[in-house]
Specification:
Rossmann fold, alpha/beta, 6-stranded parallel β-sheet, 14 strands, 3 domains, N-(1-d-carboxylethyl)-l-norvaline Dehydrogenase, domain 2, single chain
Length: about 450
């Protein structure tokens, strides 16, 4: 079986590489020639644990190919085309489908035999029909008729664990109304179903909705817990104890109920906005999700507000250190990262910022430029600073040498946005300490 992946971003590259890993012949397409040339040299555009050696291995074995010429690949013959191009949010929050439709039109202009076109990108309900219509319009312009199917196969990949998620999925969701397409998917995913991972077949609209509903539910759990954490500080409760208490309830579970400084990344913010927008287009107000988004927007400022309160509103001239820039560990993704909100507010108040992140420094420079200072390691970031902010819970930040930390810092206060330290322990070491959901008195 030969498959084509259009788009070598996060979803496309992981999808293509993992399919190649189980022996399928895969060609990854991108219009960015520099990106394709780099991939052929083994230079990846993203950081994802375990992905680089897998790309190199499958490229060397001839199972994974990279090209900028989709027309050539289609003419040469391909069984499945996965559309994994970006769907960035528009100004009104809706998903921008211009790249998805552009791929569909290109397929319609070139295809010369049956092909299965699969939307892998996260797209609103009704997108598959728009893709089908675009392909058919191009075929009509050519005056030809070839059979084709359009299906939905949303991804459920966690950044930082995407390779494992793809190879050992909780579930594989497929939306299709074609028996022929269903047979192709059954063959395509056989290496995974042999290990007991289920393929759930459903109608296309339900598959498109499933992706948005899944991400929105997880975002809801995060915002709910952050709201509870803020109330815990006010009433004198310990959010960590509350989390343990409710997490032991199997109906709730322990995942995604850790308090913090808000969710970010490429999925949750975009998908929540898009689902809210879709509902409005159909005359319905998603009140819970609107509140989820509002809570998350506010939560990104919680750590900054604690810093400002501690320094009695006077941040001008203060030097603030940030440990962590990416929206979560094990990724260099800076999209919608809470660090961006925190840094923006600190700079606006006249503070200077020095930051360190194990992998996201280059991505941060693309966004922040020289507005902040970038340290070569976590300890260099602490030299003569007035405060340390924990923004991303990278493992190497969890057990620092606090004697060294104390010697380097000018003022000994830690604002822990991820609750990775114990309040009593830090106070005993001579630090002022603030975290999320526990009133530590500062």
């Amino acid at each position: 079986m030969k498959i084509t992946i259009v788009g070598t971003g996060y979803v496309g590259l992981v999808t293509g590489t993992c399919f190649a890993e189980v022996g399928i012949d895969v060609t990854c397409i991108d219009i960015d020639k520099v990106k394709i040339d780099n991939l052929k040299k083994g230079i990846l555009p993203i950081y994802e644990p375990g992905l680089e050696p897998m790309v190199l291995r499958n490229f060397e074995k001839g199972r994974l190919h990279f090209s900028t010429d989709l027309d050539e690949v289609i003419k040469a013959g391909t069984d499945v085309i996965f559309s994994a191009v970006g769907t960035p949010p528009g100004e009104d929050g809706s998903a921008d489908l211009q790249y998805v439709i552009a791929v569909a039109r290109q397929v319609g202009r070139v295809m010369n035999d049956y092909v299965l076109i699969v939307t892998k990108s996260t797209v609103p309900v009704g997108t598959a029909e728009k893709v089908r219509k675009a392909i058919q319009e191009e075929l009509d312009k050519r005056g030809v008729s070839f059979p084709f199917d359009v299906s939905s196969n949303p991804e459920f990949l966690k950044e930082g664990d995407a390779v494992n998620d793809f190879l050992k999925p909780d579930r594989i969701v497929v939306g299709t109304n074609s028996h022929r397409a269903e047979e192709i998917f059954t063959r395509l995913y056989k290496p995974f179903t042999l290990n007991g991972h289920p393929v759930i077949f459903m109608d296309i609209a339900s598959a498109e909705m499933t992706k948005y509903a899944a991400n929105s539910m997880l975002a809801t759990k995060i915002s709910f817990m952050n709201d509870i954490a803020n109330l815990c500080e006010i009433v004198g409760a310990d959010v960590n104890m509350v989390r343990k208490g409710i997490g032991s309830d199997t109906r709730i579970g322990k995942k995604f109920i850790y308090p913090g400084i808000g969710y970010g990344g490429s999925c949750f913010p975009k998908d929540v906005k898009a689902l809210i927008k879709t509902a409005k287009e159909f005359g319905y107000n998603l009140r819970v999700l609107t509140a989820v988004e509002d809570v998350n927007d506010d939560q990104k400022s919680v750590l900054f507000n604690k810093v400002k309160k501690y320094f009695k509103g006077e941040l001008k001239g203060k030097k603030i250190a940030l440990w962590g820039l990416s929206f979560k560990p094990q990724t260099d993704d800076m999209r919608e990262a809470p660090s961006l909100t925190i840094i923006s507010k600190l700079l606006a108040e006249g503070a200077s910022v020095v930051a360190y992140d194990p992998v996201a420094m280059n991505e941060a420079k693309h966004t922040l430029g020289d507005s902040i200072t970038y340290a070569k390691d976590q300890y260099e970031a602490l030299i003569d600073v007035d405060a340390l902010l924990i923004v991303t819970e990278w493992p190497e930040f969890k057990f620092p040498n606090f004697e060294v930390v104390k010697k380097l810092m000018k003022n000994h206060v830690v604002f822990d946005g991820r609750n990775i330290y114990d309040a009593e322990d830090l106070v005993s070491k001579g630090f002022d300490y603030a975290c999320i959901g526990i009133n530590t008195g500062i």
